[in-house]
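REVIEWER CHECKLIST
Item 1: Sequence provided? yes
Item 2: Single chain? yes
Item 3: Sequence as submitted:
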Amino acid sequence: MAEETLSDEEREAFRTLCKEFLDEHATGIHLNEPDPRDKETISQNKAFQGKLAEAGLAGLTYPKEYGGAGLTKEHETIWREAYSNYPDMTTQLTISHGMCLPMLSEFGSEEQKEKYLADNIAARTVWCQMFSEPGAGSDVASLQTRAELDGDEWIINGQKVWTTLAHVCDYGVLIARTNPEVAKHAGISMFIVDMNDPAVEIRPIHQIDGGMHFNEVFFTDLRIPKDNLLGPLHDGWRLATSMLMYERVAIGTGSTGGITTPHTKRLIEHAQKAGNITNPVIRQKLMKLYSEETAKSLVSMRTRAELQAGKTPGPGGSLGKLHGSKILRDVRSLINDVVGMETDAWNEGDRGQWWGRLALGSFQASIAGGTDEIQKNIIGDRVLGLPREPSVDKGVPFKDLLVGTQKDS
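Item 4: Structure as written out by the authors:
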């Protein structure tokens, strides 16, 4: 059934409500000292999201019985447009809200929805995603983490890596191998995991930009209830593909709407202060960056419109993800031109510190959510209809593949 269209008065009233809330609460993330593990940042994210839930503005399109606002997709569009004019207050909730929440809503059982959705929407709990392993990155279907059924419990053993914010998350969505006798894509299932269980060990990964928000996660005889299976048994690859589509949309479109050019705006402001805004080469590069960010915003608006039309994210989400990676490569180059040596050597608190860390951290954009090469393959294969690359392991039982530690057996 089609959603009821809002009247002009209803649109304006909701837009005013959003603006009043954002004026009061979207004042930026304030840190008194570096936050390498993002603990203070996510604390402020959770506080903002809690206030959003109290105001009836969280989970706008999710049903009220699951903790959402029960509003229309048009309400969400108005919210995103209003939010684009304010600092992003939910920077570290992208995975929890952009990936885990829609997966729980789409594939969770009624009991799982009742148990988890409301707390996720209000950020009383925060969720992470656990796909990649040391021997299964771009080819995540080669994962070796296994889940074995023992009565009414699953026993999980294995390792995940590059798990964002695992150390501050309450729950995680995990894919593990449940049948090694079939081809690698066919024997995978998805599970909900309690990250605070003693059988889960989380170790930080130290990054080049000084951050430590990625982690290794180890599971040693972790027992979870049988009901923590998310979706059908052995159907984890289909669910994982859906979650990756949500991930690329979340990364590629961000949490706001409309046309936004945040990197261009910040670099122009710095160039004006530094006195090199009249440099013709810098001006040309800034204009190119502005064009790229504008084009990405337009593609993001189209992607969001498809979602609001009820479509599950498709391979087109890779366009925004790949475009965002290219933009950050351009930003990295421009930082060197506009900011200069301050980005290469700084003391704690210097203005070059933020720019330097942005430049260093920008490299992850070409990896997180699938490498640029993987995105190009997806676009070529599933969007443009080009021939697929040859597969040498098609139909081969996973136990017979020489992947990961199986190479040594």
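Item 5: Key structural point noted by reviewer: Residues 128-236 form a domain with the Butyryl-CoA Dehydrogenase, subunit A; domain 2 fold (CATH 2.40.110.10).
Item 6: Recommendation: ____
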